[in-house]
Amino acid sequence: MSIAQGKAIGVLVMSYGTPESLEGVEAYYTHIRRGNPPSAEQLEDLTNRYRSIVGGVFPLRENTNGQVAALQRTLNELAGEGAYVCYQGLKHAAPYIEDGVAAMAADGIKEAVGIVLTPQYSVMSVGGYMKRAQDEASKHGIALKPVHEYHLHPELIDALSKRVSEGLDRFGERRADTLVLFSAHSLPAKILEMNDPYSDQLLATSEAVAQSAGVEKWQFTWQSAGQTGQPWLGPDILETLERLSDEGVPSVLVTPVGFVSDHLEVLYDIDIEAKKFAAERGIRLERIRMLNDDAQYMAALAESVIGLARRGD
Predict the structure, then answer these.
(1) Cβ neighbours of 206 (radius 10 Å)
(2) pLDDT for 194-219, tens place per residue?
(3) Which residues are annotated as a binding site for Fe(2+)?
(4) Taking the domains of the chain in order of start, what are their residue ranges?
(5) Residues in binding site for Fe-coproporphyrin III
(6) 154-287 — its CATH code?
(7) Which residues are annotated as a binding site?
(8) What phi-psi label fits residue 229: left (phi over 0), alpha (psi between -120 and 50 degrees) or beta?
(9) Coiled coil where (predicted)?
(10) Which of 34, 39, 182, 273 is deepest in the core (most CB within 10 A)?
(11) CA 278/CA 286 separation, integer angstroms
């Protein structure tokens, strides 16, 4: 019996993707650059960043696989075995978004929900994923509904607030002096001219988490901007740390609300680069635990999927 005969709804779980080995970095970087190979210097820089992370281990792929599996288990628990079937689709690595849709089609799926492992919406991020998914789905006769955002889902906010409280406890007596610094991946500044909701949704998530955790000292900053020659949203986390140092802030808890997994932008940009930068300026920098396959995060995803699937529009 095909999956379609059971009338299962497909769930395309999308994320950025990562190479599976150091040998795959060049092909991955070339795909990000829309087919233009990186220069030797650019390739060396990215390869060295990956190499710095636990000797080149690639946790994002493992974490993403784990998230998809955990979401499948959660959907089974909430909606019953076989009601939803999860497929993975990556933006810059196999299985690509189109591969995930093709796998659904091969299994006879006719209805699907697309969700991205990023809580906040931007036309340049989640919007781009969804366009690719819906374009491919239409070729296969699959009706695919998009979950645009879930940045204020109660389970997400509670999971993050618990991590903030836990992280602040690590500072002991300096807890009250510690600033919570929320962060997210920067995007080209031109999104501000497009009335894009990305910035507002990130601030809304940050405020909700701070309120839930009882945090009064908090700020928001950007990180991991691309090197494209055009302006990106700022200030960058290193600029923010420089200013906090000048203001005499002794300790910071970085809370990357725009990310849900341990990956390069977290394990290198925060744990290595930002932490070293902060230490050189007398600031103790710690980071919250990432969500990865946290049960509450899986519940936020599953409830978002089920809620959209059951809507009649």
Answers:
(1) 24
(2) 999 999 999 999 999 999 999 999 99
(3) 185, 265
(4) 3-150+294-310, 154-287
(5) 16, 33, 49-50, 129
(6) 3.40.50.1400
(7) 16, 33, 49-50, 129, 185, 265
(8) left
(9) none
(10) 182
(11) 10
